[in-house]
Structures are given as structure tokens and as C-alpha cells.
Amino acid sequence: MELFIDTAHVEEIKEAASWGVISGVTTNPTLIAKEKRDFKEVVKEICCIVSGPISAEVISTNCDGMVKEARELVQLAPNVVIKIPMTMEGIKAVHILKQENIRTNVTLIFSANQALLAARAGATYVSPFVGRLDDIGYDGTQVVKDTKDIFNGYGLATQVIAASIRHPQHVLQAAQAGSDIATVPYGILCKMFKHPLTDKGIERFLKDWEGVEGSR
Ligand code: E4P
Fold first, then answer.
1. Could you tell me the pTM of the whole model?
2. How many CA atoms lie within 13 A of 112 on its CB side?
3. Tens-digit pLDDT profile for residues 88-117
4. Which of 3, 54, 55, 129 to mutate to test the pocket of ligand 1 (most atoms within 8 A of CB)?
5. Among the atoms of ligand 1, which is closest to the Cα of residue 30?
6. β-strand partners of 163
């Protein structure tokens, strides 16, 4: 499973990119708003840091507006992917953009049926929101698994991005469910590094090393 970072914060993206573990970035209007910067400038900067797919979301609610925004956003960099909400207008836009070879990520997916519609319209990616489903008592990971099973069963090339990741266990569950990608906030990527036995082990090695002749 590939890892994307789910943030618009450039310093976080630079740091995670330096680890060599992330292959893409997802943003959304909420994440962009937090940065208090010009939207297009942020997207352009992110596209220079990470060469993989960078999702930038449209804010129009009708098909014509989404298509217009998408055509403008893809001019920013060749790795821009257009994030489109899961609505009838959004799916119409995905269908049009597919014919123009513009890659799309259908967001706000909460069921495998929604994912199937997006895939049939030609979405490059679908983003089931695992955490938001879990929040209301549903099983977000099951939606990821059902979607992957359907896509595999019918040879659909659309890739699944497990999104709305709340903790490291969600990342593990997404990988076990067969997700192609998980998009993970910076803080959770950091938590994935941690294990108390790793810290304890380093502490012990360094302490023991002090007793080795010529160690100082
Ligand atoms: C990613 O594509 C989504 O925008 C993001 O994961 C949503 O996460 P949230 O539910 O924590 O806002």
C-alpha cells in the first residue's frame, strides 16, 4: 500500500518527503483554509516538493463550474489531480474530465456503491472516508474492503485511497483491507514510527556501549 500525506502544510510535506515514504499528497478546502495562503500558490509549491499525484479540490457544486475549475487547476503542474465531491454533478464532471485525460479523485465516498459509480464514470481514485464512518458507528474499513473486492472482481482500474485516517490502526486496517493507498495526516505518520520497545532498545544499546573499551 502506498502512503500519501493528508495536509496542505508545506513544512510537514517537506519533512515527510525527506523520509522517502510518501508518494502523493491530498488536500481539501478545510486543510487549505488552515494555511491562510493563496490556494493556487500552495498547490504549486506542494507540486514542486512531491512529484506524485497532488489532489486539489474544486468548490463549485455544478458540473460546468467543476470542469472549469479543473481545467484551470491542471495548468498549475502536471501532477495535479482534481478532487471532486461524490454528487451527480460531480460524477458528470468526472466523466467529462476523463475524456480530457484529466485525473480525478472522487472524495466524500461513504459506500461501495458510491465508489462503483465513481469508477464507472472514469475516476482515477476514490476516497472512502474511514474515520468519519467510524465516528457515526459504521465500519469504514469494511467500505474500503468491499470497494477493493468489487474493483478487483470486475477489473476496474480505479485506485482506492483510504482517507479520513484517525490513528495508526486505521493505516494497518487499510493495508489489510487491500487499499491501494492510505492518505495519512502528518501527526499519524509520526506515530507510526513509534514503539516503546524501540525507544527502550536504543536507550539500552547506548548505555551498554558506554562500557565498551574505546567507545569514548
Ligand atoms: C482526504 O482526502 C480527506 O479530505 C481527508 O482525509 C478528510 O479527513 P477528515 O475526516 O479528518 O477531515
1. 0.96
2. 16
3. 999 999 999 999 999 999 999 999 999 999
4. 129
5. 12
6. 129
